[in-house]
Specification:
This protein is mostly helical and 404 residues long. 48% of the residues are buried. The longest helix is centred in the first third of the chain and has 53 residues. It is built from 14 helices and no strands.
Length: 404
């Protein structure tokens, strides 16, 4: 299997991400019109806690796999790359299974103190199987990304999105006469089925397109693999866990603080849906580029770092940051100037546009943060990301508590 260049890999992911975002955005517009801001609010309340559990289940392994496989492939040590992948796949399989069952049994207790609205129970329960599926598929994606092969990730993400849209919207239309929460359950089933089909396809690609196994090369012990994975994955896991804990606390805190401000439960859920399901979903549109850059930067920087090629590192860093600024600043300006008009056109909701206008002030910093995180992960400097995430998260929560 031929190795793709850094920018070719980024272009493939950007194109796939663009297609997925267009599909996803049409899906979001139809979902908002189908289940309303209240239904999207229910879905968005569940999602941060679900993502937090998923982060714990994957434990930073996908990025660690990508970086470590890339380093071994730079040394032409295919046997070691396979060994890293198989060890990681075993741990992700067991971890995904454990966290899925643990969440299933702990969900009733979690519901008592974590959520304002009891209607999220069935939605959350429906989403649990996706934790195991995503954990396993992330091992395959990390392996291919370490090989600088971005098309398997791109293809399977597009397939997942198409399945999610078709099944999710069909079930939502069928179930919504029973109540808004059942319509949202239909959307959740679509998400799970998308992940199932995506996993099936990436396993098939692995069986047919994986590089030929070449015995020999530098032998690396299981202890060495676990030590390297631990060194990379622990700070990544702590960083991602803290970031998702912030989102989860935000999902719990915002409706409660809105209630303190005098809104009813339904009004608070609706406002949260406008903020998270509409305004934020627009703000993150330019991350089509930045997330794709971050994913491709990890193995590309890691390879150049392993070869001590400072020129390649400097060039890739410079070009990535320049591209992020060229896309990020105009996007932030458009969101600030035309926020209410955009949300009125897309969601038939002007209020969320005023939220988007305020969020746009921090847009460029969000986009640069994602790109620079990919650079730091490629260099193995994951502790710096952790430090910045901790500071930013605490400031964010303090702002939400006192300003809401």
């Amino acid at each position: 299997m031929k190795k793709q260049s850094f920018f070719l890999g980024a272009i493939i992911l950007v194109i796939a991400s663009f297609i997925n975002r267009i599909i996803g955005f049409v899906y979001r517009i139809l979902a908002v019109r189908l289940v309303g801001a209240e239904g999207i609010g229910l879905y968005e309340m569940v999602f941060p806690v679900y993502i937090m559990v998923l982060v714990l289940a994957t434990a930073g392994f996908p990025l660690a796999i990508s970086r470590l496989v890339s380093v071994q492939m730079a040394k032409n040590n295919i046997a070691a790359a396979y060994k890293i992948f198989k060890v990681s796949l075993f741990f992700l399989f067991c971890s995904g299974l454990f966290f899925s069952f643990a969440l299933y049994y702990l969900l009733p207790y979690l519901l008592d103190f974590a959520f304002q609205d009891d209607r999220v129970y069935l939605i959350f329960k429906t989403m649990i199987p996706a934790i195991f599926i995503i954990s396993v598929s992330s091992a395959f994606r990390g392996f291919f990304q370490g090989l600088h092969q971005m098309w398997p990730t791109a293809l399977t993400q597009t397939i997942e999105q198409l399945v999610r849209v078709f099944i999710g919207l069909s079930l939502a239309v069928y179930l919504i006469p029973r109540g808004i929460e059942y319509g949202v359950v239909g959307l959740a089933v679509g998400m799970v089925m998308g992940e199932v089909i995506g996993l099936a396809f990436i396993v098939l690609i692995y069986l047919k397109k994986r590089p030929v196994y070449v015995p020999g090369g530098e032998n690396i012990s299981l202890f060495y693999i676990l030590k390297d994975i631990h060194h990379l994955s622990v700070p990544i896991t702590i960083t991602k866990t803290f970031a998702t804990v912030i989102l989860a606390i935000e999902a719990m805190l915002l409706p409660k603080r809105l209630a303190v401000a005098g809104l009813s439960l339904r009004e608070a859920t609706t406002v949260y849906g406008q903020y998270s399901g509409m305004a934020l979903s627009l703000l993150v549109l330019p991350t089509i580029l930045t997330i794709s850059l971050a994913v491709t930067l990890v193995p590309a920087i890691a390879e150049a770092h392993a070869q001590r090629n400072r020129y390649a590192i400097s060039t890739r860093v410079h070009n990535s940051i320049k591209l992020t600024i060229l896309v990020g600043i105009p996007s932030s300006i458009v969101f600030y100037c035309f926020g209410p008009e955009i949300t009125s056109l897309l969601f038939n909701n002007q209020d969320s546009g005023y939220m988007l206008r305020i969020l746009a002030l921090g847009g460029i910093f969000l986009y640069l943060q994602q790109t620079t995180s990919g650079i730091l992960q490629g260099l193995g400097e994951v502790r710096a990301i952790l430090q910045n995430t901790l500071i930013g998260g605490l400031v964010r929560l303090g702002g939400i508590y006192y300003l809401t």
